[in-house]
Amino acid sequence: MSVKQVLEMYGITLAVFFLIDMVWLGVVAKGFYRKHLGAMLSPKVNWVAAILFYLVFIVGLLVFVIGPALTAGTPLRAFLFGALFGLICYATYDLTSLATLKDWPLIVTVVDLVWGSVLGGAVSGLAAVLGQKLLKL
User: Fold this and answer.
1) What are the CA-CA distances from residue 43 to residues 40, 91, 105 (Å)?
2) Which pLDDT score is estimated for 1?
3) What are the contacts of 55-60 at 24+ separation with CB within 8 A?
4) So what's the pLDDT on residue 49?
5) b/e per residue, 8-31, with b = 16+ CB within 10 A?
6) Is the pLDDT of residue 124 over 90?
């Protein structure tokens, strides 16, 4: 891929990720985290940290998942390896929290591991399909 195509894929992937994750956080799981994490949650979102996570996660998806899947010509590969990548990334946070934080709920870890897998797979698969169709990759 050219630098221009990489940047375009980054934009596509970021948009897909943001859209899916906002539906999850704003609609589907809105009360879940408040219910289970309660006082541990900050009253204000640290948007700098949240945006940095998005930006870094997208780089990981592009380098380790989407780029190789596009080279191989298989969006299904992007979905499967994206799910694995999402599981690993979300497991890093949640299993560390479970291991080190007092009263960290197991249910939050389980839900986040499933969500990380679904999110990573869906974003990678959709971005790969869009890259093939829109950018002719």
Assistant:
1) 9, 24, 19
2) 82
3) 55/14, 57/17, 57/89, 58/10, 58/13, 58/14, 58/17, 59/10, 60/85, 60/89
4) 96
5) bbbebbbebbeeebeeeeeeebee
6) yes
- What is the predicted pLDDT for the residue at 136? 83
Count CA within 13 A, CB hemisphere, residue 63.
Answer: 6
Helices (H), ranges, the chain: 3-23, 30-37, 47-61, 67-72, 75-100, 106-135
pLDDT of residue 26: 87
Domain with 60 in it: 3-135
Say whether pLDDT at 73 is over 90: no
Query: 20-24: which pairs have CB atoms within 8 A and are 24 or more residues apart?
Result: 20/119, 20/122, 20/123, 21/54, 21/119, 24/115, 24/119
Tell me how many domains the chain contains. Answer: 1
